[in-house]
Amino acid sequence: MNRVAFLVLVAGAISCVGVYLHGTSRDVVLDRFHALFYNSQTTWAKNDWLGITTLQNPNDVWITQEIIAEVRPDFIIETGTWHGGSAILWAMLLEQVNPDGRVITIDIDDNTAAAREFPIFPARVDFFHGSSTDPQIVEEIVRRVQGKTVLVILDSDHREGHVRRELELYAPLVSLGSYLIVQDTNVNGHPIRVDFGPGPMEALDDFLQSQESFEIDASRERLLFTLHPRGYLKRVR
Question: Cβ(99)–Cβ(82) under 8 Å?
Answer without folding.
Answer: no
